[in-house]
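Provenance and format

Records in this collection were gathered into a single text stream. Each protein contributes a sequence line and a token line. The two records reproduced below are adjacent in the stream.
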Amino acid sequence: MATKTAEGAETAGTGSGTEARKDDETTTAGPGAVAETEQAEQAEQTGEAGPETAGDEDGESGDAEGAGEAEADGPGGKVPSGVGQGAGAVVSAALGLVSLTGGWIGTVASAREQLIGQLRTSTSASVGTQLKEVYGDAWHTTALWAGLFALAALITAVVVLVRPAFGAPGRPQAAWIRSVAWAGLSLGVIGLLLAVLKYSDALLAVPSAG
């Protein structure tokens, strides 16, 4: 009986010691250990959610940048300024005026043809022949150059007027560009008509000797 009582006491003593050690460890750890454990768990959760959130934000930023580039590169991204069309309209009007006045090239060509006629015509030639070779050919040369300028004005004006239909159909052409282009077209038509009449001797023909 004494032996069993001693063993029970030893067993009880051992169990009490173990529980006491556990209580001591818990007491020693205290609230600080619990706080550290919670912080570690929060860090793990943040680390798992962080890359996904960053990935979502990067994806949204990439989509926004892609949409911006698509809008910039789209049909409305690059709008034509109309500088070329305006320049073409002004050139057509200038060519139309040159066709009416003859221009420096026409004057030089006419003087050259007149000089050639004087060199080729002998002093013993008839008056009709001298008029034709000296004045008639020079007059026709002036009319020819005027017609070339008028034709160039016509072509340039037509190209400017039809350009929006092929380049940028949705963008209206400036009013002043259309006005100047129509002026160049009108001057070109008038200049071409006068050049044809002068070259065919229907207008201001060289007088005859008889």
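Adjacent record:
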Amino acid sequence: MTAADHDIKPDTEFLAEVAELFRKHPEAARKYGLASFTLERRMEVDYTKQYGVSWIEGDRIITEFRLRDKNPPEDRMRICVKYELHGQDLECVDWEEAPE
């Protein structure tokens, strides 16, 4: 699969800077990765109205997008698995429920 298959326009300067950052912080490189929202855009996911919940089934990670409630359920611990940059702030846009 290539970048063209995912409608990704390569940004070599940006990716080179990310690679350099990971070289400077190898511990972070083992914990984080870069993700594209291409599939979410194709699915027309609107993170202002929806959120993603992920879980593991065998050797697959499943993500389901749910509508945000006006009155959210009782808070439980969640682990953020995908962030989106808004200005200078990172916002969690996809998470999984923490084990109880």
